[in-house]
Amino acid sequence: MALAQLQGRVLDYERAGEGPLLLAIMGMSGTQLHWGEPFLAPLRERFEVVVYDHRGVGASSHLDGPITIAEMAEDAAALLRVLGIERAHVLGISMGGMIAQELVLANPQLVETLTLGCTYCGGPGSTYGSADRDELYAAMQAGDRERALRAAFELNLSPEAAADPELWRRVLEIAARRTVAVPVIMAQLGAIAGHDTSARLAQVRAPTLVIHGSVDAMLPVENGRLIASLVPGAQLEILDGVGHLFFWEQPERSADLLSAHALTPA
Fold first, then answer.
1. Domain 2-263, CATH class in plain words
2. Where are the alpha helices (DSSP H) in 26-88?
3. Which residue, among 253, 226, 266, 216, has the nearest Cα to 43 in the 3D structure?
4. What is the pTM of this model?
5. Domain locations in the chain?
6. Is the Cβ–Cβ distance between 152 and 245 less than 8 Å?
7. 188-247 pLDDT, tens per residue?
8. Is residue 127 classed as helix, strand or coil in its secondary structure?
């Protein structure tokens, strides 16, 4: 664990690997542990990878009250500056992909390439998943942690992956090491509700790859198609039969896609 002292706040981060710098931005209710070694290990052979926890998570600063996606994007920009990084390849998944969109729009000089996974831009044509979230919300309200974890697990993966006991064991292990408090998750939900970059994505000049699973129940694949249509020159990679957390279901392929995009000269 390392702590980056930003102006008025602290972010818990880890920096490892060799090569050009890759900043990975996690999604809602996630921690830096959720990237998983099956995905990070091949990336660290090709990049120096920085992962971090958002405000309210791990040893990062406490989160009291609401926050916006733009504020979380400024956290990411401030982290790069504190670490002395002038430009980075940027990966953002789900809410992290929303943060990455705001990051590249506000600080285009910081972003070498952009990879947006299983994410959403807001505005016309964007859609939330049709998956039934009642069980997840009921478990959260009841304070039943393992029941909530299981409900979220099943929403975030394809049915085939959700049946894998090894993946479920990993979820429980991460939850035992680092939890995200319900008020923090609710603040992140509020930030997502206010996110809309749809009218500004035409301004993005960084080479962009969009990755989305075809059976994503949280943020359907139509969102990936929409983002790819709005970002000039963006590439779109749809992973057939894969759910929201594509980098859990196909970690090596996901790492290869990102690497090929980021390391291929423009």
1. alpha beta
2. 37-44, 69-82
3. 253
4. 0.96
5. 2-263
6. no
7. 999 999 999 999 999 999 999 999 999 999 999 999 999 999 999 999 999 999 999 999
8. coil
